[in-house]
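Example 9 (inverse folding). The structure is encoded as follows.
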């Protein structure tokens, strides 16, 4: 069965862009002081800066992506880091392909 929450989440261009950037975090983001780009994810501050949006606007995009189980979040000190949930993304791709 196709995950409609995930489909709705990626229906927004900015959220789709975030997922694309997070596919290759070392290519798309600079090194971070805290957290490893691959293991821990990318700091929300860096994502907001790259998109050119405010922290509250980014928080809403990330909330939608996390609720759709497309991203995983992790707190390190006062920062929130995000990385793709590759297992769920793979499952969604498989269900979409099977449904076509």
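The amino acid assigned to each position is listed next.
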């Amino acid at each position: 069965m196709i995950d409609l929450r995930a489909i709705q989440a990626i229906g927004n261009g900015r959220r789709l862009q975030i997922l694309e950037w997070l596919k290759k975090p070392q290519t798309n983001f600079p090194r971070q002081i805290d957290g490893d780009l691959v293991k821990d994810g990318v700091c929300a501050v860096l994502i907001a800066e790259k998109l050119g949006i405010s922290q509250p606007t980014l928080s809403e995009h990330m909330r939608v992506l996390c609720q759709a189980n497309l991203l995983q979040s992790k707190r390190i000190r006062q920062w929130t880091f995000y990385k793709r949930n590759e297992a769920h993304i793979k499952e969604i791709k498989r269900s979409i392909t099977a449904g076509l």
